[in-house]
């Protein structure tokens, strides 16, 4: 495996990992295979975290293979058996199911490439459903009517496609998280245009503002990027707070770009005209907001990943209100969207993952278990007819949640 591929794989698994250094691998058949194959890029025990389901371990191994891990075919199954037995998923809360007035149904599609790790979904204006195959270096397009799935291979190898947005011409834009680039795909021709970032970094989430300018976050580089599609010029801005780690983004009715700061307990904003920043402190120092949605009244909603809360920020007054997420403090709320001013989000740390509905008028929760586990829903999108789209990383698919009107 190349040094570049090692770095990509380490980054890919890091978000579900916690240090476990100083321990020895458990004894048993397959231990030698794990020592030989799973410590090339990183110490295995430093990346196991809370373990994985059998399906999750299968996907993780496929991810490794996609990134060039030199794992012989006859060693895959015994290694998988060892990992499943030695590192089962544990310590995750049960997904809470709360009854309520809304009725929904689920439809699922599997990504054709095993271990592609669908990261972000996108509901396009023509009714198609898209996803980033982060570890297969593809963008996937699902036709929900026929069920046909087409994968578009990208130009730069191992570019790590991450965020997704559609422009007014139907082009699909994405962030190359490990390729340090912004990409544009023309779905009609399959042509890919790339825009390298001025400094090396990790382009993450992206949105268009009212003038058609593309904005994006660079989490670990601590930058907010601005790309003019007409000229290809990219300008990088630095938030006021060091190590803020800007993450999810949303646009309010006044055209202000809002973003959450996953490295601290803050929400930030930048004015596209003046390029001035503003930061809003959240009351709990342990808060780590990860994704963001804005309702028609310009109220900012955020998923507090670290504490298991749904948060509400009034950017006019700075007032913050929070509610515990149904599955508890370890539920890891993540992808979030506003649909007809009702908040829909995912709990990515529960087993199974859940879809959660919160009505701001009644302040009541309703939730459902995602069929197949959902594991792990990192981001969400809204279809043109107001349904909820999920990407499911470790079960290698996308899920459409149809909301009964």
Automatic annotation (TrEMBL):
Gene Ontology MF annotations: electron transfer activity; heme binding; lyase activity
Pfam family name, one: Vgb_lyase
Domain of life: Bacteria
Protein name: Virginiamycin B lyase
Taxonomic source organism: Bradyrhizobium erythrophlei
Signal peptide extent: 1-22
Keywords: Lyase, Signal
InterPro entries the UniProt entry points to: Cyt_c-like_dom_sf, Vgb, WD40/YVTN_repeat-like_dom_sf
């Amino acid at each position: 495996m190349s040094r570049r591929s090692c770095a990509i794989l380490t980054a890919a698994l890091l978000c579900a990992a916690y240090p476990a250094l100083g321990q020895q691998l458990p004894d048993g058949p397959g231990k030698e295979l794990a020592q030989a194959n799973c410590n090339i890029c990183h110490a295995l025990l430093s990346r196991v975290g809370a373990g994985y389901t059998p399906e999750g371990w299968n996907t993780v191994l496929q991810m490794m293979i996609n990134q060039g891990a030199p794992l012989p075919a006859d060693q895959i199954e015994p290694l998988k058996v060892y990992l499943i037995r030695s590192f089962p998923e544990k310590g995750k809360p049960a997904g809470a199911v709360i009854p309520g007035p809304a009725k929904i149904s689920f439809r699922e599609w599997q990504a054709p490439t095993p271990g592609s790790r669908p990261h972000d979904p996108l509901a396009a204006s023509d009714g198609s459903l898209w996803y980033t195959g982060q570890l297969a270096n593809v963008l996937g397009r699902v036709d929900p009517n026929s069920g046909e799935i087409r994968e578009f291979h990208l130009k730069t190898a191992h570019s790590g496609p991450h965020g997704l947005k559609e422009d007014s011409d139907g082009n699909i834009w994405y962030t190359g998280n490990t390729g340090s680039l912004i990409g544009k795909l023309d779905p009609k021709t399959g042509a890919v245009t790339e825009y390298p970032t001025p400094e090396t970094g990790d382009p993450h989430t992206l949105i268009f503002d009212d003038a058609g300018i593309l904005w994006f976050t660079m989490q670990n580089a601590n930058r907010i990027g601005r790309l003019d599609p007409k000229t290809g010029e990219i300008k990088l801005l630095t938030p006021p707070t060091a190590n803020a780690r800007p993450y999810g983004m949303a646009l309010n009715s006044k055209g202000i770009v809002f973003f959450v700061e996953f490295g601290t307990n803050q929400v930030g904003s930048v004015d596209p005209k003046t390029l001035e920043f503003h930061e809003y402190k959240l009351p709990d120092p342990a808060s780590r907001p990860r994704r963001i949605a804005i309702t028609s009244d310009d109220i900012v909603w955020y998923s507090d990943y670290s504490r298991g809360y749904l948060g509400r920020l009034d950017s006019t007054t700075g007032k913050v209100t929070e509610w515990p997420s149904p599955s508890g403090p370890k539920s890891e709320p993540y992808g979030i969207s506003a649909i007809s001013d009702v908040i829909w989000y995912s709990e990515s740390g529960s087993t199974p993952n859940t879809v959660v509905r919160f009505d701001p008028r009644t302040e009541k929760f309703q939730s459902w278990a995602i069929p197949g586990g959902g594991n792990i829903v990192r981001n969400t999108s809204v279809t043109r007819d107001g349904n909820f789209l999920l990407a499911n990383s470790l079960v290698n698919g996308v899920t459409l949640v149809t909301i009964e009107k």
